Structure formats: C-alpha cells, structure tokens
Amino acid sequence: MSEESEKIMFVKVPLPREVVELARARGVSAEELAKAAETLLLLEAVSMESKLEMEDALKIADEATRKAWARLKGAMQQ
User: Fold this and answer.
1) For the chain, what is the domain count?
2) Containing domain of residue 33, as a range?
C-alpha cells in the first residue's frame, strides 16, 4: 500500500432520497452531488477540529447544511 493511499479513507455515506431527487430534478450529476457531500463533510470536520467549542462547531456545520439545502430548494423553485 502506498503512502498516498494510506492517507485516504473511503466510507459509504447514504444520502436521503429527498436530496438525491432534488439534485436529479435540477440536473445535478451524481459526481457533483458526491462532491458537494464531500465538501460539507470536510467543512464539518474542519470546524470540529478548530479551537471552537463543540457546540459552536456543530452550529457552523448545521448552518452550512441549512444554507446548502436552501440554495438547492431555491434553485428548484425557479
């Protein structure tokens, strides 16, 4: 196993059907949806590793998730 592959961890993350259906209706590809989920996961991990209190980190992650949902739903209404 190479050093590079040891730095990467792969996990399966189920996406709610509602998210997948909204994305598909908007024309978002599976690759784009996966990248968006990865970005949100990274944001949450970074906020949790920062010097913030856990409660603050969770608030930041929740706010990012809410904004992403709002943007996706807003785009669906147009």
Assistant:
1) 1
2) 16-77
